[in-house]
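General statements about sequence and structure are easier to judge against a single worked case. In the encoding step, the backbone of a single protein was reduced to a row of integers, each denoting a local shape. The record that follows shows the chain in one-letter code together with its fold in token form.
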Amino acid sequence: MPDATPLLELVDVTKHYDGPAAAPPVLRGVSLRVERGESLAVVGPSGCGKSTLLNLIGALDRPTSGRVLLNGTDLASLDDRRLALVRNREIGFIFQLHHLLPQCTVLENILVPTLVAGAMSPGETPEQRAKRLLERVGLADRADYFPGQLSGGERQRAAVVRSLINAPNLLLADEPTGSLDRASAETLAALLVELNREEKVTLLLVTHALDLAGKMGRVMELRDGTLQAPR
């Protein structure tokens, strides 16, 4: 019998930061349900709160009020140690900038998250999984390169592999094509769609690029601090 619990659920989430008393909240009563295996894009202009939303979902920040539930667990109920484990084992992150360590090879960069004992696929060692994924994204011959020897698109593809190394349930991407040229952005967008299906990972990305958003199974717009159907 299929699990009726969504992978991710936000319930009436509000977030505001300290500042002028009249400053409006960044997020106001946001509710969202994301099923396992789904792909979802949240669009909106720069500064509308997309990254704040992703930080709350990724347990990098806590809401002022409301609940963020992952696999039915309220993230606010977890202490810092357990939150760190959730971020390492259950969530993969892709950012606009790749954040690869310049002194490490591509393969070494990808294996860094496994040092905290993330979950691996049955029958695979971390290095085997890393090499399989590198081959899948067209970087098998770049495993021993350093980030400075790669193109921008190659660095971002390496960052995608790193985000998937611990076989997370949820992949979060914050403007993943924002620093790429058009051709590299299109390649990465197609890759994310394919990996969502092949790796059975739920994909949630925030972007202002409507062409990228349109490749996702569902699109929502963050407007005036609330999630709405796109106009």
In short: The radius of gyration is 18 Å. The first helix runs from residue 50 to 57. The longest strand covers residues 8-15.
